[in-house]
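Hi all, posting the design record for the shared folder.

TITLE: backbone redesign
STEP: 1 of 1
STRUCTURE INPUT:
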């Protein structure tokens, strides 16, 4: 299963995380916002759609910067960095949202596929 996710980075260098609904697999854990890529859908287009559906924000596909991927069978997650969007993120499909600096993200309980992407994100942010 191919999944796309966004590291939404605000002007203060914080990353938006969402808490999974408690009645779903990995319920209550924190994750990068995103979702499944539909058959025939380009990953960036899927992420634009998912961010609109889950957070009510509008992102241009060219505002997504690919960072890396992680696999926890059967899921492969592609992570993109995004620093420009329109609207204020709202938790439409999550229990809650939080903004954290990348160094603090490791303290959040996360699904296994999100965890290795923390190092990828930290490297990308330290490189500018």
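Okay, here is what came back for every position:
SEQUENCE:
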């Amino acid at each position: 299963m191919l999944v796309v996710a966004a590291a939404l980075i605000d002007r203060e260098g914080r990353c938006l995380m969402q808490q999974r609904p408690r009645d779903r697999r990995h319920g209550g854990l924190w994750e990068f916002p995103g979702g499944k890529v539909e058959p025939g859908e380009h990953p960036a287009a899927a992420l634009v759609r998912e961010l609109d559906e889950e957070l009510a924000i509008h992102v241009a596909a060219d505002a997504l910067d690919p960072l890396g991927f992680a696999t926890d069978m059967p899921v492969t997650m592609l992570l993109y960095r995004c620093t420009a969007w329109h609207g204020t993120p709202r938790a439409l499909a999550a229990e809650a949202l939080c903004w954290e600096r990348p160094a603090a993200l490791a303290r959040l309980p996360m699904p296994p596929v999100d965890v290795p992407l923390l190092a990828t994100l930290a490297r990308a942010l330290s490189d500018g």
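COMMENT: The CA atoms of residues 57 and 107 lie 26 Å apart.
Let me know if anyone wants the other runs.
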